[in-house]
Amino acid sequence: MKRLKRFFRSGTMVTLVWVLGIAAIWEGFAYYVAQTKRTPLNVLPHLWQIIGSFFSDKMITGQMTMIQLIGNSCAETLSRAAIGFLIGTVLGYLLALLMNLSGIVEKIAFPYLMIIQMIPILGMAPIILAITGDINTSRIVIAAILTFYPVSTNTLAGFKAVEKEKHELMYSYAASKFQHYIKTIIPSSIPYFFTGLKISAPMAITASILVDTLQGGNGLGCMLSQSLKGSMTRFVFWDIVIFSAVIGVLSFYLMGVIERAITPAKRKAKKKAQ
Predict the structure, then answer these.
(1) Residue 197 within any structural domain of the chain
(2) Is the pLDDT of residue 269 over 50?
(3) Under 8 Å between Cβ of 30 and 46
(4) Neighbours of 5 (CB within 10 A)
(5) Is residue 230's pLDDT more than 70?
(6) What pLDDT, on a 0 to 100 scale, did the predictor assign at position 41?
(7) pLDDT given for residue 195 in this prediction
(8) CA-CA distance, 24 to 135, in Å (whole number)?
(9) Cys bridge to 39: 43, 77, 120, 143, which one at CB 3.0-4.6 A?
């Protein structure tokens, strides 16, 4: 009985509920579209049709099945997104550190951060491509830019959210600024830092896919664009859409797993919840 109660209170139950909820909503709309017949056939297929096409042995292009095609394209997209994500994370954290150390740097840099964040990806892609002169490099840069803002702003908020008592305690021990940061400010800002990572990880993947649709080449976005043009089976579009959504959700949860692994307080809270 206790195990059953723990299961219903766990994150697994919450995940199961929203997955089933999304599936029910999807099937409801798919049934409605099929009944109205006001749109082309299979414009919104049933989930079982999409899943069946994903694992089908039918060749889509050349000697590749659906799962092979999406797997190869996913490797291209995720590699660029991962590199951009890592670059954006490092640069965003360093800028947050500089802004916290210097109010002048914060006043100068923060407006530029806001401007960069407000530029749409569709408008940013041609500009970055013109500057870099390389399609793959431009995709990495865009993923880095979209990672940069959430990481820097959330980390800066974490630096500033340290309790006054902790500052006073370090001052009472005559700690240097370096010791203050290492023992108090940086550890206290970790939850804020990972909040930025949870936001930016799916964004980096989404940006990489979207830029693929604009610039061509290889990747999930390119396959998505080709399926919309009718050069591939109609199920390619929906397979890529759902697969991309799953990857984005998994990247979010991956950041949470890493956070719990390196943060003792998170591990203790999880054990108490269980």
Answers:
(1) yes
(2) no
(3) yes
(4) 9
(5) no
(6) 54
(7) 92
(8) 39
(9) 43
Residue 104 has pLDDT above 70, yes or no: yes
Please count the other Cβ atoms lying within 10 Å of the Cβ belonging to residue 40. Answer: 9
Q: What is the mean pLDDT of the chain?
A: 80
Mean pLDDT of 163-179: 72
Cβ-based burial of 231 (10 A; exposed 0-12, middle 13-18, buried ≥19): exposed
Query: What does the alpha-carbon distance between residue 208 and residue 202 come to, in Å, rounded to a whole number?
Result: 10
Do 235 and 66 contact (CB within 8 A), yes or no? yes
Instruction: Map tokens 């909820």 to a residue.
Output: 21
Per the domain annotation, does 248 fall within a domain? yes
Joined tokens for residue 266: 């998170």
Query: Total structural domains in the chain?
Result: 1
List the CATH number of the domain containing 231: 1.10.3720.10
Structure token digits, residue 26: 């999807």
Rg of the chain taking only CA atoms, in angstroms: 23
Number of H helices, E strands in the chain: 13, 2
- Say if CB 88 and CB 143 are below 8 A apart: yes
Q: Which residues contact 217 (CB under 8 A, 6 or more apart)?
A: 76, 135, 136
Closest listed residue to residue 235, CA positions, set 55, 102, 1? 55
Q: Helix %, strand %, coil % for the chain, to 5?
A: 85, 0, 15
What is the amino acid identity at position 103? G
For 103, the domain range is 73-265
Q: How far is CA 136 from CA 74, 81, 158, 214, 216, in A?
A: 14, 10, 33, 12, 10
Q: Is residue 14 part of a domain?
A: no
Q: Which two tokens stand for residue 48?
A: 């079982």
Gap between the Cα atoms of 24 and 49, Å rounded: 15
Least confident of 12-26, 82-96, 220-234: 220-234
Residue 52 lies in a domain: no
What's residue 38's pLDDT? 59
